[in-house]
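dude i think i finally got it to work??
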Amino acid sequence: MKHLGKPLFAIAAAMFAVVESVTPSPAEDAAPEEAVFKMREVSAFEKHNPQAGRRLTRGAYVECSTEPDKEVKVYPPLKSKQPLYGKVKFDRNLQGEGIEYHFVLDQSGQPPPGKEEKEKPEEKDNDKKTEKKPFWKSLSKKLARLGEIDRDPEHPLLKSGSLSRYDRLYFDVNHDLDLTNDPVLKPMQNPPWQDLPPWQVQEKMVFEYLDVAIDYGPGVGVRPFRILPWLTISKRGDHTYRMMHLVATTAREGQIRLGKRQFQALLAQPYVVVGRYDRPGSATALYLTPLDPLDILLNKNQYSGFTEDMLCTMRKVDGALYSITASPLGNRLTVRPYRGDFGVFQIGPGGRDLKDVTFRGSLESETAMLDESDEVREFKVPVGDYLPQYLSIQYGSLHLRISNNYHSEGKSQESRKKWNYFIKIRKDRPYVLDFCNKPDVLFASPTKDQTFRPGDEIKVSAVLIDPQLDVMIRHLDDTRQKEKKTIELGDGKTTSYERNLSLDPIVRIADSSGKTVAEGTMPFG
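look at this
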């Protein structure tokens, strides 16, 4: 292979020479302006973006209960000895408010459908087959597909789990808390197993499509949004997880420009089903792939931060910062360059004798995310009020992570109406987070004053918080010490690795007489 080195080096040198020769002069490098780009509807089950892969069909998910919900007025007559009850919110905003729907899973008593059909061969377009694509497009596609999981339906990950006997889904589509007047959803005849996440489960079932009414606002009105519901049942230790997944079946695709660079854009709802594409936070994902093959080769403008795939994340390209917003239907993306003032965010030692203080991660405002994927000592961000969405911090010999606190008195943070945007970024002075407040322990579960019956399983979870700033302090590690961890791979096989010593606390639970009834480590966060 030695004889290939010189030609490849020559090609690379020529490519760099071309880039240098077309660098615009200051006069040509005019400030970018706002631009609007059209997007078209595509199927979420087709791999339009190899980086996203099966993440597009991960879907929102909720754990089912074996107890009926008191809010439901009427459940249909159920045959199963243990029906599975649940509820899910659609069209959620940053405060967790949304439209809540109830459902119940039942068994008809019929045997499960036949085995899953294998993936049908993809139809080939004769015109596309004979079309000669430019070399750079072929190269770009091959590079982007590196690491993608094989779509072969015989892949062992796709064959886990038997078809569940839960084969009837009652979903309160008309939102009247009466599940007897909605059509029952039965198992899908030819479910797209090859396009769903290849999780190892004991049982699974895909149901017929579900159409939910979503209000897209003035000028558009209420329209149906199609969802694919599917069930997985798995066990971890003594606990059985019965999860209902709800997958948005469509996405949006198009080409956009940030400054002078072109990107293939894929707009999707892989984690939270909201229907609308203009919701902030993690509801809508935006995957960007450079169209210039040289950008791919140089890994230029490839985002690798904590929030790089969120629509609301501001993108930095060629030194300029851009915000991207979508129309409610997702048929348009608007790119705007940021032209305001900047300030500085820092992590400080707080009077401690620390030299190595660096961080990376994301800050969140009411409208945007700012992401820094490199280890830095300070972060230059637009003026505004923020909270730590997720920060990984090297604090002397201690490594920790912090995030916004989404727990309160044993309940999810979604019940709270207001976030604490305590990081005040101003033009004239930096904001320094120095960990001078006294931390406290908050028990996320069980809830305060919750009662239990003999034999009930009690889940106890605690988080370490800064009560003044309302942030969680999590994953405390001592980088000076190492520990060995072993993971079971199944079939008696294990693998081991070494990591920094985790400073997980020991939690003891005692009864009214003071006798210890449970004890063990409890990782914070």
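The first helix runs from residue 2 to 21.
im so relieved honestly
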